[in-house]
Write a structure and sequence with these properties.
GO biological process, one term: regulation of cell shape
Strand content: under 5%
Helix content: 55-70%
Subcellular location: Cell inner membrane; Cell membrane
Keywords: Cell inner membrane, Cell membrane, Cell shape, Membrane, Transmembrane, Transmembrane helix
Largest sheet: none
Number of domains: 1
Protein name: Rod shape-determining protein MreD
Number of helices: 6
Radius of gyration: 16 Å
GO cellular component, one term: plasma membrane
Distance between the termini: 18 Å
Number of strands: 0
Shape: globular
């Protein structure tokens, strides 16, 4: 009998791929439509393995996104910790929801984190108060959620990540 791999490398690789997708250049007209890949992967792993991926992971992942984006350190870390808190509070219910219901909750959670980031940027004068176009990212994230959920679930089951 060989010992079972704990599968941490699958989680780390999925986050690395999400980081890469988060920094892929988009044309200027499509920047508001960029899905929040890292937040989506974080939500998935918190639903699937809440005892392994928690609020500490969310903070570290958010700090890494801050470094990648060159934004104020702790900004995305705070937003991802908010997502982690909300997800951990309802992860049992999220598992039983349909893809459409999960997408609606993803829309709300990602939207709240985007609003928080926008308010802090405006409050610290790093951004100008603009319209609500930045929330289109939450809409595209909710649209992508069902497919990402299926892909990550197959990956988790295929590699027996527990």
């Amino acid at each position: 009998m060989t010992p079972k791999a704990n599968g941490i490398w699958v989680i780390v690789l999925s986050f690395l791929l999400a980081f890469l997708l988060a920094i892929v250049p988009f044309p200027d007209w499509a920047m508001h439509y960029r899905p929040q890949w890292v937040a989506l992967v974080l939500i998935y792993w918190m639903i699937a393995l809440p005892y392994r991926v928690g609020m500490g992971t969310a903070w570290v992942v958010g700090a890494f996104v801050d470094i990648l984006e060159g934004s104020m350190l702790g900004l995305n870390a705070l937003a991802y910790t908010l997502i982690a808190y909300l997800t951990l509070n309802i992860h049992h219910r999220l598992r039983m929801f349909s893809y459409l219901q999960q997408s609606a909750l993803v829309l709300v959670m990602v939207g709240l984190s985007l609003i928080l980031v926008h308010w802090i940027k405006v409050g610290t004068e790093q951004s100008d108060p603009v319209g609500m176009l930045y929330l289109l990212s939450a809409v595209s994230s909710a649209f992508i959620w069902p497919w990402l959920f299926v892909v990550l679930r197959q990956l988790r089951r295929g590699f027996d990540v527990q």
